[in-house]
Write a structure and sequence with these properties.
The complex is a heterodimer of chains A (342) and B (267).
Chain A: H1 2-11, E1 23-29, H2 35-45, E2 48-54, H3 57-65, E3 73-74, H4 81-86, H5 106-109, E4 120-133, H6 145-148, E5 158-159, H7 164-174, H8 184-197, E6 201-203, H9 208-213, E7 219-223, H10 224-233, E8 238-241, E9 247-256, H11 263-272, H12 276-286, E10 319-321, H13 327-341
Parallel strand pairs in A: 1-2, 1-3, 5-6, 5-7, 9-10
Antiparallel strand pairs in A: 3-9, 4-7, 4-8, 4-9
Helix pairs in contact in A: 7-8, 8-13
Chain B: H1 14-35, H2 52-59, H3 61-93, H4 101-108, H5 110-113, H6 116-134, H7 140-164, H8 168-175, H9 180-209, H10 212-217, H11 225-231, H12 239-263
Helix pairs in contact in B: 2-12, 3-7, 3-9, 7-9, 8-9, 9-12
The chains are: A alpha/beta (342), B mainly alpha (267).
């Protein structure tokens, strides 16, 4: 095996090293990076960006933690950012190299999982809410009651996406608790409510974009980006509700790795994506909002002013970043979920 | 009339179970192939016949780069693992039984027994140390890893072939004063060739399909076709993934058919 290793290593010794001049290694979620953005960056700076895909926060974390990954920038989800910081895998950013940092929208300048935005730059964000066909149900859609205390018009016609954390958290917040609550009373209330609501649901399934569009479902707990496509498909019949009791937000942010070799190039890229016209390219490709002020003006027409992409002012305060539940709260959530799946 | 003895195909329900098994095995694949020709951008709602997802996949530079990478790794791993497997097969069959033979078999076939994720994590840590120490980030790691887990897949058909080969031809060659090398080159190797080819093809297909180990071992910019497809999960799948899968399926079927033709018993 050792001979084999050295033999292949010699064979491929001519392959380029990661730390070459004018290069940048971006480790990002698959199908999440706009090729147009990378082309523009290369044209302006001469730096060639190599993108490598991952499909879960855990894989990304494990690979970088093992060392020698060769990546410069990584894009973890909000609830994973504190883990990256705690493990010392990402470094505090040097703001003197980030002239455009002021472009970050005010609500994203200071976030709970990265106080003061010292470590990360926004990439994209979205929310989990409720998509409702307003031709079938004309009541208030900005409440979790739509799926937790199903109105008669929607009985047997509503779907719930099978995402444990999102669904149990929506129910916990509906009964007045916090996500990841360790309060047995609160969790019991959430459980009872979910179990009582379940017989009124049509299904617990993915694929909302198609099935809301073709009318199979009259409503569904769903993500904002998908609901925007449904609204366009149905000429506005299907609308997106932001539960006033609280709804989950998610955000993926770019961070600089401690063992990055192309540090100057990485700063150039971070500063580059904070220009509104460049941030808009990210959104136009992946169809989520990006957290940079003024980028909306450069987005595709269908995204400009879309209430799913830009949270209306009155709903902004109700969005919550779900923490990573651990210990007792995770036990409660798993138990409720198991019971709900029966 | 004479008793014909036990025959499984005469048991009640045989046909039903066989048909059900084939339907469960192949229906999902047929569905996948059908939807690769879907005109709409949904993987579930039919919108008319079209080849445009194949055109999209063909025009996608990421797909092209990932395919090239998969082929380079697959061919390298197949050649290396088959060479090693041939040596191992000769070493374990063309000699008297020796102490610890079973142990050696188990050692060689270790990748078949150990869960892939265990190998993946072990390689991640091991290669991590090497990457830090040497700074080398190339494809060598993936080729070494793929070679390692392809060895048993190449070894088994080669060993099976060797065991079914009569020793008398080799003995005859030796009797006629052929040197050991000449015997190997002129007698053993030609007879063994179908087994080696079959082993190499199996190794290539196994390398082409691998996800878990590749995902953990790959360095920057080293996505293979399967890890590229897995990366698409973050956003909605489009039939482009079906089109890529169908092409990958086509390659696998061709290779397996060749494997079957090369290894079938000549009655």
């Amino acid at each position: 095996m050792r001979y084999l290793l050295s033999a292949t290593a010699m064979m491929l010794a001519s392959a380029t090293l990661a730390a070459a001049e004018g290069q940048l290694q971006l480790y990002n979620w698959g199908n999440y990076t706009s090729p147009e953005l990378l082309e523009k960056f290369e044209k302006e700076t001469g730096i060639k960006v190599t993108v490598t895909d991952y499909d879960s926060n855990d894989v990304a974390l494990a690979k970088v933690e093992a060392g020698g990954s060769g990546f410069d920038l990584v894009v973890p989800s909000a609830n994973y950012v504190p883990i990256w910081i705690e493990k010392g895998l990402i470094v505090e950013l040097d703001n003197s190299k980030l002239a455009n940092k002021g472009n970050i929208a005010p609500e994203w300048q200071d976030v709970a999982w990265d106080p003061g935005r010292k470590f990360t730059i926004p990439w994209q964000w979205g929310s989990t809410g409720i998509a409702v066909n307003t031709k079938i149900y004309g009541g208030d859609i900005n409440t979790s009651a739509v799926f937790l205390e199903v109105p008669p018009e929607l009985v047997g016609k509503i779907n719930v996406v099978p995402e444990m954390n999102d669904i149990v958290s929506l129910a916990t917040m509906y009964v007045g608790g916090e996500p990841c609550s360790e309060d047995a009373e609160v969790m019991k209330k959430a459980r009872d409510l979910l179990l009582a609501a379940k017989p009124n649901w049509l299904s617990m399934d993915y694929g909302a974009t198609e099935r809301l569009s073709n009318g199979d479902w009259a409503a569904s707990v769903n993500w904002n980006g998908s609901t925007m496509r449904v609204r366009l498909n149905t000429n506005g019949d299907v609308q997106y509700g932001y539960p006033k009791e609280g709804y989950p937000l998610f955000m993926d942010s770019v961070a600089l790795l401690k063992d990055a070799t192309n540090v100057e190039e990485a700063y150039k890229f971070l500063d580059f994506i904070m220009l509104p016209e460049n941030a808009a390219l990210i959104s136009n490709f992946a169809r989520y909002a990006n957290g940079i002020s003024g980028s909306e003006a450069f987005m595709d027409a269908e995204m400009t002013g879309a209430p799913e992409v830009m949270i209306p002012e009155e709903h902004k305060a109700n969005g919550v970043f779900l923490p990573t539940c651990t210990g007792k709260s995770l036990d409660y959530i798993s138990a409720i979920w198991t019971e709900l799946q029966k | 009339m004479a008793e014909r003895g036990f025959e499984i195909s005469r048991l009640p329900g045989f046909a039903t179970i066989a048909i059900a098994a084939f339907v469960i095995l192949y229906l999902p694949i047929v569905t996948l192939v059908i939807f690769s020709f879907n005109d709409s951008n949904s993987v579930a709602v039919w919108g008319g016949f079209s080849l445009h997802w194949y055109a999209d996949a063909w025009a996608n530079d990421d797909v092209k780069a990932a395919t090239m990478r998969s082929l380079i790794i697959g061919v390298s791993a197949a050649v290396l693992s088959t060479t090693l497997a041939t040596l191992a097969a000769l070493g374990t069959t063309r000699r008297k039984a020796f102490k610890g033979q079973t142990f050696i078999y188990v050692m060689i076939n270790q990748p078949l027994m150990v869960p892939e994720i265990v190998t993946a994590v072990a390689l991640l840590i091991f290669f991590g140390i090497i990457k830090v120490a040497t700074g080398y980030q190339g494809l060598g790691y993936l080729i070494a890893a793929h070679t390692a887990f392809c060895i048993p897949f190449a070894y088994l058909p080669i060993r099976a072939r060797l065991e079914s080969m009569d020793l008398s031809l080799e003995t005859a060659a030796a009797d006629l004063y052929a040197s050991p090398w000449a015997t190997f080159r002129r007698v053993t190797l030609p007879l063994l060739a179908p087994g080696i080819m079959a082993g190499a093809m199996l190794a290539f297909v196994i390398s082409l399909d691998d996800v878990v180990i590749t995902e953990f071992v790959k360095s920057g910019g080293q996505d293979t076709l399967p890890t590229y497809m897995l990366g698409q999960l973050r956003r909605a799948f489009t039939p482009e993934v079906n089109a890529i899968s169908t092409m990958l399926l086509g390659v696998t079927v061709v290779m397996l058919t060749a494997f079957f033709l090369l290894t079938r018993k000549k009655d």
